[in-house]
Amino acid sequence: MATLRVAVVGAGPAGIYASDILLKEAEGKHEVSIDLFDRLPAPYGLVRYGVAPDHPRIKGVVNGLREVLDTGRIRIFGNVDFGTDLTLDDLRSRYHAVIFATGASRDAHLDIPGIEAEGSFGAADFVHWYDAHPDHPRDWPLDSESVAVIGNGNVALDVARMLAKHPDDLMPTEIPANVEAGLRASKVTDVHVFGRRGPLQVKFTPLELRELGEVPDVDVIIDEADFDRDPEADAESLKNKQRLVINRIFGQWRERANEPRTASRRLHLHFWAKPSEVLTDENGRVRALRVERNNPNGDGGVMGSGEFTEVPVGQIYRAVGYFGSPLDEVPFDETRGVIPNEGGVVIDAAGEKVPGLYATGWIKRGPVGLIGHTKSDAKETIANLLGGPEHWWQPADTDTESIVKLLAERNVPVTDLDGWHRLDAHERQLGEAAGRERIKVVDRDEMTRISRGE
Fold first, then answer.
1. Rounded-to-integer distance, Cα 364 and Cα 338, Å
2. I need a labelling partner for 152 at 20 to 30 A (CA). Which of 2, 60, 404, 445 fits?
3. What gap in Å lies between CA 375 and CA 379, rounded to an integer?
């Protein structure tokens, strides 16, 4: 039985699940050799660098991913950048196929006047800061009392909660010293979250919403005028179990709406609110967000009313979705931010299948869905990979050590599974010394040195 050699680019959930499913589905049909590449020294991708640190439930996902890697059946090459350290030709000559699982980590653009003003940020950049991503700045200017978050998805609520939360309540988490210092210096007292549709058409989950109401010393403020504006659309939404729970949470908050507000920080939820322009001061810095009041359009959607208000804010965070990044020599859809594909099989501009190339996860379908969708994606991609050997490459170099030698010749400081275990143990030791579970290492060179035992 010939060995099927596959390279997987991206060591987040999508890449790890695809690797695991490939091993299981190929059993009895092919011997499989999988090499997993990631540009960061540590694995787990968006689970490590895209989820708010106060989400303990993510530990279950991490444990599952770790179990897959710890089987030892997948080689990990961390700190290796596709397009710089490795080219498509390098992979084509050594593997039968490559699966791209590079995700979507850029902010989607919001096309309104003034969005590029000083003090206007993409939510992903802020997330990367508080999640200690090694390729992003160490400092963040939380220098405004009133800030805006545009969006009604889970990332928007994560960002809003992190902006409003007191740093003492984040100390049990893995945030490093620079993030703690930034949060302690924060001047934020009021966070305004804007969504263009009604309260029952939001994209976030009940858990995210409930967590907002549980943040110590933070009052959640809603406007009764935002509710019961579109009974037909609301009735349709309430056929969904999650929306029922969301409605119940809002109902509890509405009952308490007239209670005294005593918290030192406030989180304001604005619905039927369409951001139309970022207003700036004489120095070009954000001073307010101009918002149009939306009305129901009678068809479950919204339309502008022509009524505008200005909400004074000093910073704006757009959380309107993530967007994928193009990869060297790989087809890319600039409109959707994905690798064009049919069932995970990469297709070119003419709609023809590209030999040897596959995609899975957010770079395949766009930044929607949770872990369950990622597993389904991987199953579809792997089924099509195994079902189409005529589209595989025929590598000229079948030496499994060839890729190791190539990276060594190029002086790439590769990190491996043992290196991740060393870094993981080091971060846990840092946490233990502070009475916490873990404290992340932020600096890429330091992460690499620790991983390589240098």
1. 6
2. 60
3. 6
pLDDT in tens, the chain (454 residues): 579 999 999 999 999 999 999 999 998 888 999 999 999 999 999 889 988 999 877 777 888 999 999 999 999 999 999 999 999 999 999 999 999 999 998 999 999 999 999 999 999 999 999 999 999 999 999 999 999 999 999 999 999 999 999 999 999 999 999 999 999 999 999 999 999 999 999 998 898 899 999 999 999 999 999 999 999 999 999 999 999 999 999 999 999 988 899 999 999 999 999 999 999 999 999 999 999 999 999 888 899 999 999 999 999 999 999 999 999 999 999 999 999 999 999 999 999 999 999 999 999 999 887 676 889 899 999 999 999 999 999 999 989 999 999 999 999 999 999 999 999 999 999 999 999 989 999 999 999 999 999 9
- The answer to whether residues 19 and 46 touch, using CB atoms and an 8 Å cutoff, is no
Q: How do the domains of the chain map onto residue ranges?
A: 3-105+324-414, 107-322
Class for the domain spanning 107-322: alpha beta
Yes or no: say if 17 and 374 are a contact pair by the CB < 8 Å rule: yes
Structure tokens at 100: 């791209």
Domain 3-105+324-414 CATH superfamily: NAD(P)-binding Rossmann-like Domain (3.40.50.720)
Amino acid identity, position 419: G
